[in-house]
Amino acid sequence: HPLSGFDPTQDPEDCLRRYHAVQLAVQLMADPAERVAAQRRLESAEPLLLDFLSDQAEICTVYGDCETTQLIKHGIPIGDMNISVASLLFVEDGGGDGMMLSFWGDPSLGRGAPLRFLRHALEHAKRLVFYNAAFDLTLAAGGDDATIRKWWMRTFDPYKLLRDAFGTSVRLKLD
Questions:
Q1: Alpha-carbon distances, residue 53 vs 47, 50, 100, 113 (angstroms)
Q2: Contact 14, 4 (CB under 8 A)
Q3: pLDDT tens for each residue of 57-71
Q4: What is the 3-state secondary structure (H, E, C) of 37-49?
Q5: Which one, of 40, 36, 44, lies nearest residue 8 by Cα?
């Protein structure tokens, strides 16, 4: 059964990592009645998973990066671009390994957590760290200036420091 071992009360981190894979398996269930029951069970897990994300984000510095489905050179405004995948690393102030989660825009790939959970994590993050945050936060906020400003107040961007030091004509990639 696709929901075997899917228990957000016991292992929410694993459930987030496997959410799309489980969702895909549920959609492929042959028996319509079982499929509907499994979909309802999966949907009922969402509030617990969102609470878990909130709890983790509120006590952590959240490091992130977003990738798009479009190439930047095509001239699409950032706020109109779509996220293909976003990764967040949640690290408590005392250090430790942290928790890495990926959020995917295409559930049919069967990878990671739903992209809609990304904004929830960003909303609750104690502190955000993004390299070239102006791009990633604009992308994640869908161009919503009020959301971007709210997130920006809690954001550290090493790229901004480098641009301030070396100017905007120098393109300093993360690699």
A1: 10, 5, 12, 11
A2: no
A3: 999 999 999 998 877
A4: HHHHHHHHHHHHH
A5: 44
114, 20 contact by CB (below 8 A): yes
C-alpha closest to that of 90 among 61, 130, 58: 61
The model carries a pTM of 0.89
What is the three-class DSSP state of 147? helix
Amino acid occupying residue 106: D
CA dihedral 4, 5, 8, 13 (to 10 degrees): -130
Closest CA to 143 of 93, 85, 76, 61: 76
- Torsion from C-alpha of 110, 73, 81, 14, nearest 10 degrees: 30
Give 3-state DSSP helix, strand, coil % of the chain, rounded to 5: 50, 20, 30
Length of the chain: 175
DSSP state of 144: -
Distances (CA, A) of 98 to 93, 110, 112, 151, 153: 10, 23, 17, 21, 23
Instruction: State pLDDT tens for residues 120-134.
Output: 999 999 999 999 899
Helix (H) / strand (E) element for 134: namely helix 133-140
> Residue 129: left (phi > 0), alpha (psi -120 to 50), or beta?
beta
